[in-house]
Amino acid sequence: MTFNWCHGPNCHTRETHSRVRGSGDNKVLRTIKIKQGRYNYYDRGNNQVSMWDYFCNQGCLMDYIREHLTSIVAIAPRREALETPIKVVKEKDTNWRGDLYTRTRITMVDNG
Ligand SMILES: [Zn+2]
C-alpha cells in the first residue's frame, strides 16, 4: 500500500484526535497519512492521480494553494484569454402567462 503525507502546510497544527500520536507527556499532532486511491475520485486526470492522494481535506488543499500560489501558476501561466466559438440564437417563446417573449440561447459551435 502506498501512502503520502498530507501536503497541507498546517495539517500538523489542526487539533483533531486523528492527528494525536505519542504517549504520556510526549504527545504530538502529526501530519495526516493518506492511503493512495482511498476514494474513487471524480477528479482523476489521465495520469490517474487525485488531489485527494496528497491532501487530507479541502482546508489543507487551500492552505497549500495559498502558500504556493505564485509557484503553481508559474507552472502553466495564462498569458492571453481563451475563447470558445458560440452561436447566440434568439428564440420566441411564451412564458407561464402565455405572453410572447424573446429568449437568447448560447450554443456551442462544432468545429469538428
Ligand atoms: Zn492535511
Protein model, in words:
- The protein has 112 residues and is an alpha+beta fold.
- Helices cover 16% and strands 25% of the residues.
- It contains 1 helix and 6 strands, in the order E-E-E-E-H-E-E.
- The chain has one helix at residues 58-75; strands at 3-5, 20-21, 28-29, 33-35, 86-94, 100-108.
- The longest helix is centred in the middle third of the chain and has 18 residues, at 58-75.
- The two termini are 43 Å apart.
- The structure holds zinc ion (ZN).
- Zinc ion binds at residues 6, 8, 11, 32, 55-56, 60.
SSE blueprint and pairings:
Blueprint (H helix, E strand, L loop, with lengths): L2 E3 L14 E2 L6 E2 L3 E3 L22 H18 L10 E9 L5 E9 L4
Antiparallel strand pairs: 1-4, 2-3, 5-6
The chain binds zinc ion.
Number of helices: 1
Which hetero compounds are present in the coordinates? zinc ion
Strand content: 25-35%
Write down the secondary-structure element order: EEEEHEE
Helix content: 10-25%
Q: How many β-strands, per DSSP?
A: 6
Determine the mean pLDDT. Answer: 91
